Amino acid sequence: xxxxxTATTTLSQLxxxxxxxxxxxxxxxxxxxxxxxxxxxxxxxxxxGALASGNPPAARALADAVHQHANxxxxxxxxxxxxKPTLDALGRRLDEAARHPQAxxxxxxRDAARAALAETRQAxxxxxxxxxxxxxxxxxxxxxAEAALTAAARAAQWRRNLRLAGAGTGGFGLLALGVxxxxxxxxxxxxxxxxxxxxxQALDEKT
Length: 207
Description:
The structure is a single chain. This protein is about 80% helix and about 0% strand. The longest helix has about 45 residues, at about 55-100. The protein is elongated. The protein has 7 helices and no strands.
């Protein structure tokens, strides 16, 4: 009985919240604005029938499932309201990355991040609940694009240092690269490889 009452209350709250949500976002046609309320109400009726027929475990299982679905839908509505500032912030980060001095050298990860952001916005604007998973992927890709910019900037600085130091610094550069390549972290190895490429290019330019 308690499970039924809890599920009924949660479903009623969702119904009311959906009315407000539809008024605030009338353009949405995705599943966020249209959860399967009739199906969940039918499950509640089945739970009531199971309880009346002397099957409390079945009634509890059905009611608990409805409560979980309705509660998840309530959280999704609230998350949607808070997602737009996050999307806008990610867009600004990409715009800033595009203005970076090393932007041309790191266009591939940035283009992938921009494509992911566009897909996330499309799902968000439609009211499709898949926007949330896409948002997490987009965040990771933008972070990776920013990391590529940082590595490219360090590689460029390395080349400048080699040019300024002259040919006599070649031995020191090799020693430093040997130390860097011994780092165990994968990220450090990727950065070290970028530095090796920069060092080689700088030597080629000097000869």
